[in-house]
Design brief:
The structure is a homodimer of 302-residue chains. By secondary structure, chain A is an alpha/beta fold. In chain A, 52% of the residues lie in helices and 13% in strands. Chain A has 15 helices and nine strands. In chain A, strands 3-2-1-4-5-6 form a six-stranded parallel beta sheet, with helices on both faces. A three-stranded mixed beta sheet of chain A has the order 7-8-9. The interface between A and B is large, with 72 and 72 residues.
Chain lengths: 302, 302
């Protein structure tokens, strides 16, 4: 097992950019690519090396990381024209850290295998702040040897790194995470709306429910934002909707009804219909505001 | 403001019994009553004094605490024949620690007021284990002076004691707590079912999702029980259903749609239909098992 030194990184958005900076800080040589050229140039100032295509990135890298919006983009970048597989070194590893369909992750692993390339699915949880602070949770699927080889790099990017199992297992774990997280958001939204309509002092209510059996990360971290009328992302409605779509599709394949997740998905559609797709996921509360014709957010700005 | 020394306690069930023991341990004189005589006699062995009726309890007590199943029982014990108000001392306080309708709490406060009796609603969260360990969260509604007078006693019974506001505010806060808690249970149930159907290693999945943005008290405390197939209460399905019924009724009065809470209430109906009303609230997962014809609980007994 050799130590990886040359890393390629494709997809330099809100998440990708700070992740590349953490890799550079740790001393890795990083070749970068993004469909928007200015994103690559920005990181060149931090000593990353821009490349013209995913294929070119792959030629220069032992490990290629992708961080892209959804399954089609990842498939294109890995297996399309001028894609990673056209330039991949023998015994290279491709690690996709986007959130995509578990089935697509398994298909890409199958496409990589005959070329001697390992494919890991390694989606993350923790958002932009976790990417910047290198405190992401990372759920990994794929061969144990490939996971072991990438572990030092994963530890540069996050702190809770778990090998979940075979290809697709990382993505499956991420989708479970999103189902739970989004229903915890609904829990908070309905509970806080009932509280405000009941005329309770919201700060007191939040403190007492957060401390007990109703407590959650959402309540502790996004509850105060809701009370302040702060709907900025964090993690965007549009992206959580994509993840819920993937979760519901995976559940459909498994013949598993998820009535709660389906409800949250529909309620977020109302949030999107109101033009709030780029707001933070705590904007779910605005769907309950709309349903009841009452307001909570912003009525108690600190 | 005098220090309360003589306490009456009516309702000696799973919660009431350990609460009385904590009061006795703290040195209070406690007169007890329960419709089942053997419950009173059991506590007499711990030096509580049994009384034949709520009225008789009230004659001997500066503060009367009630801990009963639901609104009708509390109304009967406070304002019915041989009830507390028939025997209440001048300047006595009645503190109802049951979970009942906020509107009923307000009505009872209105009935007590002309007799010079203060009424506090003070529902608790934390279940049997919290009652035994005196770590209950207690949400209190009613006059500030009455709250202050009872605070030393409340601190004997719980550790997170908050005065939420006027009469009914304690009950309203409790119902918000139950809405959030029950939807967090649905979040866990759907997430864990998706994980098990996806073939993930459940202990790993639970540990990774508990640590991040999907984390909740439910996941940390009842998730492991679900994986072990342990559906024992804790807090019973039947009682959470009663609380959800109260929450949905309060929301109806407030013209507030709570689609998630309504869904959880319906799913628990399926749990009750399967004869699991006396199981712990984590049995919600069995509704998702039933919907999908697959099993999770008990398949991985530790």
């Amino acid at each position: 097992m050799t130590n990886v030194k040359q890393i390629g990184f494709i997809g330099l958005g809100i998440m990708g950019k700070p992740m590349v900076r953490n890799l550079l800080k740790a001393g890795y040589a990083v070749t970068v690519h993004d469909s928007r050229e200015d994103a690559s140039n920005e990181l060149a100032a931090d000593s990353a090396v821009p490349a013209g295509s995913p294929c070119e990135v792959a030629r220069r890298s032992e490990l290629v990381i992708t961080m892209l919006p959804d399954s089609p983009q990842v498939s294109q970048v890995v297996a399309g024209k001028d894609g990673i597989l056209e330039g991949a070194q023998k015994e290279a590893t491709v690690m996709d850290m986007s959130t995509i369909a578990p089935a697509t992750a398994r298909e890409l692993a199958d496409l990589c295998r005959p070329k001697g390339v390992d494919f890991l699915d390694a989606p993350v949880s923790g958002g932009e702040s976790g990417a910047i602070a290198a405190t992401l949770s990372i759920m990994v699927g794929g061969k144990a040897e490939a996971f072991d080889k990438c572990l030092p790099i994963l530890r540069t990017l996050g702190k809770n790194v778990v090998h979940m199992g075979a290809s697709g297992a990382g993505q499956s774990a991420k989708l479970c995470n999103q189902v739970i997280a989004s229903l915890n958001l609904l829990a908070m939204s309905e509970g806080l709306m009932l509280a405000t309509k009941s005329g309770l002092e919201m700060e007191k209510l939040l403190s007492v429910v957060s401390a007990g059996a109703a407590g959650s990360w959402m309540l502790s971290n996004l509850g105060p934002k809701i009370l302040q009328g702060d709907l900025e992302p964090g993690f965007k409605v549009r992206l959580l909707q994509k993840d819920l779509r993937l979760a519901l599709a995976a559940a459909e394949d498994l013949k598993l009804p998820l009535p709660g997740a389906a409800l949250v998905h529909q309620l977020y559609r109302s949030v999107e219909a109101a033009g709030k797709g780029e707001k933070g996921m705590q904007a779910l509360v605005t769907a309950i505001e709309t349903l009841s014709g009452s307001s909570l957010t912003g009525t108690r700005s600190a």
